[in-house]
Specification:
Chain lengths: 577, 177
């Protein structure tokens, strides 16, 4: 790699040392502050594992049961801590098994570095054993990737990998390292990367754009904020809170933005999107100024773009210039880091309140409460609902738990009804919708934040996609709490089949094993709840447990998640039943 | 909402790295955009490559894909321009039987009038080269086709823009940061 293209810290006192490439890899990880990494050994990465053995007191390698688990664990670690997660795998199948996690990290802007072993460089392109073109395969789903074929390249490339993964809009980086580069020697000296000339991660905030945005907000009668994960990634939670409180603007969130502002905040008007709250979805098409902050107008948020907020002036705050006008045409774009731009915005805003406008949100909330929420969280029917389980977890954890959800009905229910007091508490696969995400992601989250209560909420379908990670939980003694909401269906697909395919339940019914016995097989304490009167105690026991704990709740088989904006419909056409 | 499809010349200044072509072509592929031509070479700046890519798309699409190119870590800068905003050419080569030069004296006139250049001549064949706009090359190809062409090849478009690119200034700014 061309050295003049990257800027590095000047560390003249640091003398070089002659070491192997694989030792250099571990030393680089330690220099970058990596304390835990997730992975799975194999032929082409064995020299690195040999070094991991030597450095086992300095860096903790977690053997997952599948490389996909390693990638998702690294994501969970990154999402709860804001640090770069690291996953490692061998060449060929090891590398390809990481790809789902990498794609998930790409679409959800999660900083991870994946290191893969590769066959000897002289064998590249020869269809050697476990050779696969992982650089080619991962190109469309990585922020950056690179293949190292010489030991001497290792420090510089890894420094750049961590810098790229973490800076600007974060994302996954994959570094593929041939076995000869691992075995070869180099003069080691580590300098952190502080800049790459072709890469401008954080555009400067244009104060004129901020002023233009403030002018629109100050003059607005019915302004509405929709914030996304950009607020969390930019550590701008306090700035956003100050903006909301000073301006009095009602604020809604996307799934990825959940938890940045506490659920109980009076100006927090709930979730937007397909299964979001009634009020913010409906009022998207009635507001006069829509202020999007660190969100990307995903189709699950906007529904039909031709009927999305057409009456409103659009202000878009984002760090990524490619997001501006990508889906929704903006009137004012404010590029840059959300922490900086929101702090500048705060200064330009007039103190204001929008009591009458906020009242409209409350009115619509009352309708949703009557028609949907009550039946979800305080049901009177016999069968258990997913919502009442979440409510129970809220009260047992006082809203301080990190909720790691998988994908499907339970995810929507978890995001809708979880109470969040702390930022970085909603860890879920938002953009990619990866079933199997939650169990391994919860492992990474709990290990990165051992003092936090981490509760994984998973459907019976997604649970079985990475159920093997119970082995990791057992071996590593990760005290993560696992809740499976079992409706014996792939519930969200079944819901669509019911609503849009005349109840033709093609391949959505699941005959499930005895999940408690499986958990017990891994020496994880477990319980199965089938009746409402057992629920409160069961959740209490689970939260009280010092160790990992498995709770299966058998819920109503054919419940649906509402409200719902049918795919491709307008946000105004949100259905309550 | 039916925006006009136009020909755009996309210029991308990049680091000279393996795999970047794959990254760039993936951006077209994902959006189902057909690449009419693609040329890559050293640019005016040492160590910096320049891609010149021709596509037929709407201006909205052009703006969006420029954003996607610039988002790539190793892309320094990307631009799109209309035909009116660039000076552009293609180059082509013809391989033709040498005998025809003598049997068909008209060929010599065609060569002269088209400003084509003879690159080499041997007993069996001669090679003709011509640079210019597509219509000039096409007209020459049609004229020669009557006599028989053994091989024909045309390059992708190369183009310089009328406006300044300011890539050097950007790189200097990075150096002085």
């Amino acid at each position: 790699m061309d050295t003049k293209t990257a800027k590095r810290t000047q560390n003249v006192a640091n003398k070089t040392e002659r070491i192997t490439g694989s030792e250099a890899i571990i030393r680089c990880l330690i220099e970058e502050g990596v304390d835990i990494l997730y992975g799975y050994p194999g032929g082409a990465i064995m020299p690195v594992y040999d070094e991991l053995y030597k450095f086992r007191n300095e860096i903790h390698h977690v053997l997952t049961r599948h490389e996909q688990g390693a990638a998702h664990s690294a994501q969970g670690y990154a999402r709860i801590s804001g640090k770069v997660g690291v996953a490692m795998a061998t060449s060929g199948p090891g590398a390809t098994n990481l790809v789902t996690g990498i794609a998930d990290a790409q679409i959800d802007s999660t900083p991870i570095v994946c290191i893969t072993g590769q066959v000897f460089s002289h064998l590249l392109g020869s269809d050697a054993f476990q050779e696969t073109d992982i650089v080619g395969i991962s190109t469309p789903v990585t922020k950056w990737n690179h293949q190292i074929t010489k030991a001497s390249e290792i420090p510089e490339v890894l420094a750049k990998a961590f810098y790229v993964a973490k800076s600007g809009r974060p994302g996954p980086v994959l570094i593929d390292i041939t076995k000869d580069a691992q075995l070869g020697e180099l003069d080691f000296k580590y300098e952190k990367c502080t800049g790459v000339r072709s890469y401008n991660p954080t555009p400067k905030v244009d104060i004129q754009a901020v002023k233009a945005a403030a002018e629109l907000i100050n003059a607005a009668k019915k302004p509405m904020i929709v914030w996304g994960q950009g607020v969390i990634l930019g550590q701008a939670e306090n700035e956003l809170k100050a903006v909301i409180e000073k301006s009095g603007v009602p604020a809604a969130w996307t799934i990825m933005g959940a938890s940045a502002i506490p659920t109980s905040h009076p100006l927090n008007v709930g979730m937007v999107g397909m299964h979001g709250n009634y009020a913010p979805n409906k009022l998207t098409n009635e507001c006069d100024v829509l202020i999007a902050i660190g969100m990307r107008f995903d189709d699950r948020v906007t529904g039909d773009l031709n009927t999305y907020a057409k009456q409103a002036k659009i202000i878009h705050f984002d760090i990524d210039p490619a997001e501006i006008d990508k889906n929704v045409k903006t009137d004012v774009a404010v590029l840059g880091d959300s922490k900086e731009s929101l702090a500048l915005l705060l200064e330009e805003l007039n103190a204001n309140n929008h009591t009458e406008w906020l009242e409209e949100f409350k009115k619509l909330y009352a309708i949703e409460l009557e028609k949907v929420i009550k039946d979800d969280i305080s049901p009177t029917k016999e069968g258990l609902t997913m919502g009442e389980v979440i409510k129970q977890i809220n009260s047992e954890t006082a809203g301080n738990a990190a909720i790691v959800s998988d994908v499907g009905q339970h995810q929507m229910i978890a995001c809708r009804y979880s109470e969040f007091n702390v930022s970085k508490s909603n860890i879920t696969s938002g953009g990619l919708g990866t079933m199997g995400f939650a169990l391994p992601a919860a492992i990474g989250a709990k290990m990165a934040a051992p003092n936090r209560e981490v509760v994984a909420i998973i459907g019976d379908g997604g649970y079985q996609m990475n159920i093997q990670e119970l082995g990791t939980i057992f071996q590593q003694k990760v005290p993560v709490k696992i809740v499976v909401l079992n409706n014996e269906f792939l519930g969200m697909v079944r819901q669509w089949q019911q609503l849009f395919f005349d109840k033709r339940y093609a391949s959505t019914e699941m005959t499930n094993p005895d999940f408690v016995t499986i958990a017990k097989g891994y020496h994880i304490e477990g319980k199965r709840v089938t009746k409402r009167e057992e629920l409160a105690d069961a959740v209490k026991d689970m939260i009280a447990s010092k160790d990992s704990y498995f709770l299966e709740v058998c819920v109503e088989k054919e419940d649906n998640v509402f409200p719902m904006i049918p795919a491709g419909a307008s946000v105004s056409d949100i259905r309550l039943s | 909402m039916n925006e006009e499809i136009k020909t755009f010349t996309i210029s991308i200044y990049t680091e000279n790295n393996i795999g970047l072509l794959n990254r760039i072509s993936a951006i077209f592929q994902r959006r189902h955009i057909n690449v009419e031509s693609l040329t890559t070479s050293q640019s005016e700046i040492e160590g910096v490559n320049r891609f010149v890519i021709v596509v037929n798309i709407t201006e909205t699409q052009a703006k969006k894909i420029i954003g996607q190119f610039e988002k790539q870590v190793e892309v320094i800068r990307a631009y799109y321009h209309t035909d009116e905003e660039t000076i552009y050419q293609e180059s082509c080569m013809f391989k033709i039987k040498s005998g025809l030069l003598f049997e068909e004296p008209q060929i010599q006139n065609i060569i002269k009038e088209s400003n084509a250049r003879i690159v080499t001549v041997n007993k069996e064949f001669f090679v003709l080269e011509k640079s210019g706009r597509r219509f000039e090359i096409e007209s020459l190809r049609r004229d020669l086709n009557v006599f028989g062409i053994m091989q024909f090849v045309r390059s992708g478009r190369i183009a310089v823009t009328k406006e300044e690119m300011k890539v050097t200034e950007m790189l200097l700014a990075f150096k002085n940061q």
